[in-house]
Amino acid sequence: MKVWNPTPWAMLCALIICSPMSSLFAKPAKDQVQYRIGFVHPRSGPLAPYGNSLSQGVKLGLTQFRKENPQLADKVALIAADDHGLASEAEKAALRLVQQQKADILIGSLSNVANQAIAAVSSKTKSLLLLPRGSEDDLTAYPYVYSTSVTDKRQGQILADFALKTLRRDRAAILLDARSPDSEVISQAFAEAFTQGGGQVLGQWTEGGTENLRSVLTKIASAQPNIVVFPGFYRGVPRVLAEARKAGIKATFLGGDGWDHADLYKQGDLGSQYYFSYFHNNDPQAGVQSFTADYEAAFGQKPDIFAALGYDAVRTALQAFVIAKSGQTSELQKAFEGARFPSIYGAGLFGKDHVFLRPYPVMITTGGQARLMSRVMLDE
Predict the structure, then answer these.
(1) Which CATH number is 2-150+282-358 given?
(2) Of 132, 189, 209, 343, which is most buried, counting CB atoms within 10 Å of its CB?
(3) What are 80's strand-pairing partners?
(4) CA-to-CA distance for 347 and 11, rounded, in angstroms?
(5) CA separation (Å) from 60 to 25, 188, 307, 311, 351?
């Protein structure tokens, strides 16, 4: 694992994607379609705003393709289906897309519960599934499932590497978030990698459990760590940091992707803390800024994580078709396991665990906002 600052990235072209179920996409003639992508995402229910960001990332790929490759407009169809953020609906949608609408590949949803259901369909029907966000490690254990974002285990390893090599911290306390199902997995992976790298884990405590927060933080202060790992949810971060200072903790805090939200700063400046992100529109990297400018011009707002993940996922699915020159599962899988694919952060490839290896940003909170600290590249 290493910090990587890539050279400016030139955006690679994407193919067109079309949907008969959404006004975002134009419908190609059936007799011209060679490749069908089934797209399952929440268009209703509590996750709909995130699903909308995901589909707008897809729409941007469509717009760019139409400008650059009009001759390919009718070769690929994207068929969208609503999972309502529910596992039962995700399963029905995935089965319908594969069995009735003959999708050659599926792009998964945003929640782990929905993606577990889609992965089961992928396994049953031997259809490839590409996850824009698949944080549970057992998802990519399915033979036909790939993820264009890191799993929780990989995220913990990134945080450990960053703490040891970039921050040069060697005494870590771990603070779990009892409300976050990802927190324990990230923390465990961090502890293993941090210890293997020569660091010392002083203990593990829980925020939001039965013990009073001040009592928990006082115990952490007594351990005298120089880094506190808190892979919690953004809503709880300001309170934890404020109470930590009152308890006498002087160490830097290190968070996971759950910190990445604009509302993180509503209660004021957090000081200089660090957290993992899949994407941040303030990153000066050339590919990020190109994507951000195009997205803002198209939708009048800056892209979020979900827009970026959707954009990269669909580009990867389409590039696999270009490489394979076929919609057959076996040929697409060969492409996934042997080729490099474009992304906003530069070209990457899928590792043996089916997780996409590309640079990931680590952000620093300063001045009431986030800015890039460094980019970390996962090793195989």
Answers:
(1) 3.40.50.2300
(2) 132
(3) 39
(4) 10
(5) 11, 37, 9, 7, 27
pLDDT in tens, 262-287: 888 887 889 999 999 999 998 999 99
Residue 336: CB atoms within 10 A of its CB come to 23
Amino acid making up residue 318:
L
CA dihedral 300, 303, 306, 307 (to 10 degrees): 70
Distances (CA, A) of 339 to 311, 323, 335: 19, 8, 6
Residues 6+ apart with CB under 8 A from 257: 155, 275, 276, 277, 278, 305
Which two structure tokens, joined as six digits, stand for 365? 């909170």
Q: Which two tokens stand for residue 380?
A: 């195989």
Listed by start position, the domains of the chain span: 2-150+282-358, 153-277
Task: State whether residue 3 is helix, strand or coil.
Answer: strand
Tokens, residue 333 = 């899988």
Q: Tell me the pLDDT tens digit for each residue of 144-169.
A: 999 999 889 999 999 999 999 999 99
pTM of the model: 0.86
Helices and strands counted in the chain (H then E): 10, 15
Tokens for 91, please give them. Answer: 């399963």
Rounded Cα–Cα distance for residues 340 and 270 (Å): 38
Per residue in 67-78, pLDDT (tens digit) is 777 766 788 888
What class has domain 153-277? Answer: alpha beta
Name which of 293, 277, 260, 284 is nearest 358 in CA terms.
277
Give phi and psi for 54, each to the nearest 5: -60, -50
User: What are the tens digits of pLDDT across the range 83-107?
Assistant: 999 999 999 999 999 999 999 999 9
Q: What is the CA angle 109-307-175, rounded to 5?
A: 75
2-150+282-358 against 153-277: fold identical: yes
> Which amino acid would we find at residue 138?
D
- Phi and psi dihedrals of 92, rounded to 5? -60, -45
